[in-house]
Amino acid sequence: MDRRLERLERELMLVARCSVLTPRERKGQATDPQDPTTQPDTGTAPRTEPCTPTRLDRSGYLLLSRLDAEGAMTIGQLADAFQLDVSTVNRQTGALLRAGLVERIPDPGGGLARKLRVTPQGADRMAAERTCRQTDLSRLLESWTPEDVARFEDVLTRFNREVERQEGRAWPRETDEAVRAAE
Questions:
Q1: DSSP 3-state of 175
Q2: Residue 105 belongs to what H/E stretch?
Q3: Of 160, 138, 121, 163, nearest to 37 (Cα)?
Q4: Which residue of 33, 36, 38, 55 could cross-link 95, Cys pair, CB 3.0 to 4.6 Å?
C-alpha cells in the first residue's frame, strides 16, 4: 500500500499543475496590466470561440465559483472556506473588485461586515472560463469511453467529499438528484 500511496500522491500533485484546470502565465508572456485577474491562454491546442485570449487565474476562478455557488460572503467567510489568511483573500478579492467582477454590498442579514457578490460581468467571465475549461477537458478526455469518464467523475467526487468531510468545509454543490436529472 505504501508504494500505491506514493504513486497516488504524485498523480494528485500532477493534477494540481495541470494547465487545463489552472491556466498559468508562461515566461515571457505578459498579462493585461489593466486586469490583474487574467492570465494568457496557456493551452497547447488552438483556441476556438467562446474561449478568450485572457483567462481567469486560479484564485479568481475559485473565488468567483464559490461566491456563485454560495451567494454573497464576507472576506472572513471566504478565508475560512479556503483555509487562507484574510490578507491573502483580501488581496485576491481586491483584484476582482478592480476588474469589476465582484462588488461590495451591505450584509443582507444586517451585519456590519460588507459582503462580496459576483457582478453580471463576473458571472459572464466565470461562465466563459468554465466553458474554456470544459472544452479543454473534453479534448483531453476525447479518447476515453463514457464509462471511463463516469467512473473517473465518481471516484474524484468521492475523494473530494471525503476531503471536505475531514476538513469540515463542504463545497456547495448540486444535489445528486439534480445532477442525475441534468444528465
A1: coil
A2: strand 102-105
A3: 121
A4: 36
